[in-house]
Each structure stands twice: as C-alpha cells, then as structure tokens.
C-alpha cells in the first residue's frame, strides 16, 4: 500500500526538439520521496531540475517511465500537487488574505477560518489587508506558500523559491519553510543551486549531472534540527555535496548512496 504523499519516479526520460533534432534532457531518472520527507534536488544549470519538477507537477509529460503520487500516475496539474515558483505570482489588486483565498470566498466561514490559520502559520498576522506592493519579497513568498498550503496538497514542489531574495531574507525564509514543514508534515521537493540551503533544509539531497540530466548521487543528511550552519558536521556534509557536484560519484565516499 502506497502512503498518501509518497512520490515515486521510475526510469523517467524526457527530450525536447531542438533544430529538428530530439535532445535528451532527462535520462533514466528514478527516486522516491517518502510521505512527509524533505528532499532537495541540486545540480548545475541545464541539468533539467526545473523540467523534472514540471513533469512531477503535471505541467509537462515525460517521454517514457512513470511518475506516481500516492500510487496514482501523474497526468495533469491538480490541487494535490502544490507548486511554488521563484516569483511569488500574487495578484497585485488583491490583499494578503484575498490572495491566499484566491478563487475561494472569504465569506465562507470554513474558508475564512483556514485563511486565518494560514496567516498565523506563515507569520503574517497584522498584514491581512496589505497589498503585494506593501510587502517585502520574503513576505510575498510566504503569501504564495500559504495560498498553496490552503489547498492541502499532498506534495509541495518548490522551484528556487528564494533565489531572488537577499542573503538575510533567504536565511529567514529557509527557517520559516522548515517551521511550516515541521508543523504541516507536507512532503516537500525543492530545487536549488544553493548547497548551504540544501544541507540546511533536507533529509536527503539528490545530486544531478547535466547533458542529459541524470542522478549522480543521493546524500542522506542526518543532522538534527535546528541545524548549525557553521558547525563542523554541517561543513563536512557541505563538502560532500560539493565534491559530488564537481566529481564522479565513485570519487565521493564510494558512490551512489552517501
């Protein structure tokens, strides 16, 4: 029996047409994300990380292989797969609470209660009536996360959600995301270029190689939360991830599973 929120990818291949020729972007991708797990995908630009996330979201289709959520094949977008982009994509004419509710009516008592809960969860109490132009980048991204979590997705897909933020705000948002994850127990799959971010957040890190995108290594991050970014164990794991990105898997602690 497959648990709700479990993501299972087997032998996924994806190509794009380029100058009349099919170019393989993803090759034989396979991994599982367990219910409630936080997994990060990291790799160089052009390795297909965002393409992979779009296939998982149902926004694109693979050429072969399977992508399943809770045991069911993913064929199209749906509310059981939340997607957070690098840009917050809020409606500028709507307030914070209206953006979180989106197509749901705040006049509905149950919706109103859930929106209030989300505002508390992402720590935006007091900003309910504010418009996006009145918010910082980090606050706007928290609104986007709250809007997605309101729909109670089985898995939350995050494509470089903090890439446009300054270093201080980014660190704060990473801590906020961890708090949300620990409270909600939502399965999370994050794409990033940031090694520190990957080690700070994840239970596991999947390292990808480019042209075509393949899985190079899978690294378990067994540090307890909250994590000390300047601690020796953190820095050791950071070095392992860096080596996995720079070298072949067999050069990193003997390989595929670290």
UniProtKB/TrEMBL annotation:
Molecular function terms from GO: ATP binding
PROSITE patterns: ABC_TRANSPORTER_1, ABC_TRANSPORTER_2
Chain ranges of the ABC transporter domain: 7-235
UniProt superkingdom: Bacteria
CDD domains: ABC_NrtD_SsuB_transporters (cd03293)
InterPro entries, per database record: AAA+_ATPase (IPR003593), ABC_transporter-like_ATP-bd (IPR003439), ABC_transporter-like_CS (IPR017871), ABC_transporter_ATP-bind (IPR050166), P-loop_NTPase (IPR027417)
SMART domains for this protein: AAA
Pfam families membership: ABC_tran (PF00005)
Keywords per UniProt: ATP-binding, Nucleotide-binding, Transport
SUPFAM superfamilies named among the record's database cross-references: P-loop containing nucleoside triphosphate hydrolases
PANTHER family: ALIPHATIC SULFONATES IMPORT ATP-BINDING PROTEIN SSUB (PTHR42788:SF13), TAURINE IMPORT ATP-BINDING PROTEIN-RELATED (PTHR42788)
Protein name: ABC transporter ATP-binding protein
């Amino acid at each position: 029996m497959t648990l709700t929120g479990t993501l299972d990818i087997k032998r996924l291949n994806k190509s794009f047409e380029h100058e009349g020729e099919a170019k393989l972007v993803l090759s034989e991708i396979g991994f599982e994300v367990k219910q409630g797990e936080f997994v990060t995908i990291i790799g160089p630009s052009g390795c297909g990380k965002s393409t992979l996330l779009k296939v998982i979201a149902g926004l694109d289709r693979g050429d072969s292989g399977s992508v399943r959520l809770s045991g069911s094949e993913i064929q199209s977008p749906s509310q059981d797969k939340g997607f957070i982009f690098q840009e917050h994509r809020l409606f500028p004419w709507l307030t914070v609470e209206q953006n979180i509710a989106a197509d749901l009516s705040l006049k509905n008592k149950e919706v109103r209660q859930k929106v209030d809960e989300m505002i508390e969860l992402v720590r935006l109490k007091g900003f309910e009536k504010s418009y996006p132009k009145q918010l910082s980048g980090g606050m706007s991204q928290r609104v986007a996360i709250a809007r997605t979590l309101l729909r109670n997705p089985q898995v939350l897909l995050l494509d470089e959600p903090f890439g446009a933020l300054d270093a201080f705000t980014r660190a704060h948002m990473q801590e906020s995301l961890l708090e949300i994850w620990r409270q909600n127990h939502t399965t999370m799959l994050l794409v990033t270029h940031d090694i520190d971010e990957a080690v700070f957040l994840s239970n596991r890190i999947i390292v990808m190689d480019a042209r075509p995108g393949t899985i190079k290594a899978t690294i378990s991050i067994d540090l307890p939360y909250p994590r000390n970014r300047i601690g020796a164990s953190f820095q050791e794991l950071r070095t392992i991830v860096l080596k996995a990105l720079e070298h072949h898997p067999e050069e990193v602690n003997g390989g595929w599973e670290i």
